[in-house]
């Protein structure tokens, strides 16, 4: 036990004396986590919505098309830029606009008619293929405003009456349409127009009092009430996820440094000198495991503490659960390093393969971006990656506000993986390179 403690102290002293490595291991995850945290919504305290820039090309020019453009410009989620078709194409092609909408001539009239008769007009949407999320948002908002401005409001008042008459004439000229179906469509048109026109008593009541009930009109049959739901009292904080993810990545790099460092020591003959001393294989490997796990725990805790002080997130779940999760991940990191040292060949080849494996685990584990953006099959496949359990567990403790019981599965996976890696390391351990 005395020899084991002495080896642990030596490893800790050597690491702490390397000031450059210490600063890099602490500062790098903080800087990168700050960048990613700002992308994930920051501290979450601002109520200002995320704006999507969209180009607007109005080649219709009708009152309904103008009203549609004004409605889109007033939408808090969009920043509309009025452009020509050529300008819109150029900006999307250059990556300066994610989406551009082109309203072709007579679009409003054709869209209104398409509710009953006629073919649907084509609405060109030019988009940047690297930003398909913006395309989905713009498509949804555009559908909403077209339904409100072009279809529903287009049948109100005198303009709606003229449109109904034109559609009825168009229906009469359609050959092959059964008379019964024609009558149903005409009845539907008249009902829509009547519903969009206020009754005289409703108009008088609205003028007499501001609290009068509005006349029924066609429109969206609901009003969305958006509410973010977490177990946290302070709400979602994007920095909590980013600091957890970057901590996971750079702490795992410590395991790579341990494994490569042990291979360098073996090449130099240090392991043979240790073998000459009355030290067992378990004592030597156990000291490296303990020192690396302790360093990893302290580094990870420091990174999270820095994020809490700088950006205000807290452990909204169980504090003991968060500590237990950090300790379990530190053990996994140490086991990963010992495994690399046991199965690795030359330090140079092992470093390259280990860094690639680390980046893959971090990427698939959701440390860079949340795992919910992965395809469904990948979300299932990454459950076999221990890093995924660490990231999900930290999210549960830091900002989801989950209880201590929720860290049970992640801790079991991390400690089980660490035990398996240590067992493989002891089995494949060689005192000399090439044995």
TrEMBL record:
Subcellular location: Cell membrane
Database matches in InterPro entries: ABC-2_transporter_component, ABC2_TM, ABC2_TM_bact-type
Pfam families, per the entry: ABC2_membrane_3
Bilayer topology term: Multi-pass membrane protein
Parts of the chain that traverse the membrane: 21-43, 243-264, 285-313, 319-341, 353-378, 407-427
UniProt family annotation: Belongs to the ABC-2 integral membrane protein family.
Protein's name in the database: ABC transporter permease
Organism: Roseateles subflavus
């Amino acid at each position: 036990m005395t020899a084991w403690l002495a080896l642990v102290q030596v490893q800790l002293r050597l690491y702490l004396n390397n000031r450059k490595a210490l600063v890099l291991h602490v500062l790098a995850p903080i800087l990168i986590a700050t960048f990613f945290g700002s992308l994930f919504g920051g501290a979450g305290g601002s109520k200002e919505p995320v704006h999507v820039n969209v180009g607007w090309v109005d080649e219709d020019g009708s009152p309904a098309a103008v009203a549609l453009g004004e409605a889109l410009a007033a939408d808090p989620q969009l920043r509309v830029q009025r452009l020509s078709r050529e300008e819109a194409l150029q900006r999307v092609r250059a990556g300066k606009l994610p989406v551009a909408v082109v309203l072709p001539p007579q679009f409003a009239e054709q869209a209104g008619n398409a509710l009953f008769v006629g073919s649907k007009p084509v609405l060109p949407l030019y988009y940047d293929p690297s930003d398909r999320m913006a395309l989905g948002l713009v498509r949804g908002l555009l559908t909403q405003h077209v339904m409100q401005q072009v279809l529903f409001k287009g049948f109100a008042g005198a303009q709606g009456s003229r449109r109904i008459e034109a559609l009825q004439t168009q229906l009469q000229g359609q050959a092959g349409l059964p008379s019964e179906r024609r009558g149903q469509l005409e009845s539907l048109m008249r009902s829509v127009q009547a519903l969009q026109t206020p009754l005289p008593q409703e108009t008088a009541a609205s003028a007499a009092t501001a609290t009068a009930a509005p006349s029924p009109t066609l429109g969206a049959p609901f009003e969305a009430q958006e509410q973010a739901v977490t177990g946290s009292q302070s709400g979602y904080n994007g920095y909590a996820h980013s600091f957890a993810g970057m901590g996971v990545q750079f702490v795992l790099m410590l395991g790579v440094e341990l494994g490569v460092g042990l291979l360098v020591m073996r090449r130099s003959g240090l392991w043979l000198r240790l073998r000459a001393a009355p030290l067992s294989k378990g004592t030597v490997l156990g000291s490296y495991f303990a020192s690396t796990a302790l360093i990893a725990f302290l580094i990870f805790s420091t990174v999270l503490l820095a994020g809490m002080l700088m950006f205000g997130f807290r452990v909204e779940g169980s504090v003991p659960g968060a500590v237990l999760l950090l300790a379990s991940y530190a053990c996994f990191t140490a086991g990963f390093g010992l495994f690399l040292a046991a199965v690795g060949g030359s330090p140079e080849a092992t470093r390259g393969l280990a860094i690639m494996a680390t980046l893959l685990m971090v990427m698939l584990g959701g440390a860079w971006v949340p795992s919910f953006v992965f395809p469904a099959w990948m979300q299932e496949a990454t459950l076999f990656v221990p890093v995924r359990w660490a990231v999900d567990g930290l999210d549960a403790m830091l900002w989801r506000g989950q209880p201590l019981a929720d860290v049970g599965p992640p801790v079991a996976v991390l400690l089980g993986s660490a035990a398996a890696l240590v067992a493989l390391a002891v089995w494949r351990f060689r005192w000399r390179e090439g044995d």
